[in-house]
Amino acid sequence: MDAKTLLELKEMLLKEKGELEENLSRIAKPMDKKEGDYETSFDDIGTDREDNATEVGEYTDNLSVEVTLEKRLQEIIEALARMEDGTYGFCENCKKEIDIERLRANPAAKTCIKC
Ligand SMILES: [Zn+2]
After folding, report:
1. 67 found inside a domain
2. What three-state secondary structure class fits 80?
3. The pTM is what?
4. Which residues form the domain of 27?
């Protein structure tokens, strides 16, 4: 892969990473331990029974969104790490180069189309 394409894909990854982090920060708190690790916030809006039900409902909704966003964020962080160590763009499974069009569609792809 040439440097220009790599840079282009890196920019795509960084842009998506920024968007994911922004969305995550609205519903979750980043954990200190590891980059890209979030904990869904639990908004304590009140203590009566109705407030508690709303809190739990919101928390459950946020939790499933958070899991999806966090999973995607982890994939992006891993892809950026692969760019650093030079293994980016190769299929995790068969070790062949991943098609550039596939990477353009999903720069965090770990496997080729066949795998
Ligand atoms: Zn493969």
Report:
1. yes
2. helix
3. 0.82
4. 3-90
Q: Interhelix angle for 49-85 vs 3-27, to 10°?
A: 160
**Would you write out the chain's pLDDT as a tens digit for each of its 115 residues?**
899 999 999 999 999 999 999 999 999 888 776 778 888 877 776 777 778 888 888 888 888 999 999 999 999 999 999 999 999 999 999 999 999 999 999 999 999 999 9
What is the 95 CA–ligand 1 centroid distance (Å)? 6
Question: Can you read off the two tokens belonging to residue 53?
Answer: 């039900």
Cα(88) to ligand 1 centroid in Å equals 13
Q: Which residues surround ligand 1, an ion (CB under 5 A)?
A: 91, 93-94, 112, 115
Q: Is residue 97 part of a domain?
A: no
Domain count, the chain: 1
Residue 14 covered by a domain:
yes
- 78 in any annotated domain: yes
Amino acid at site 76 = I
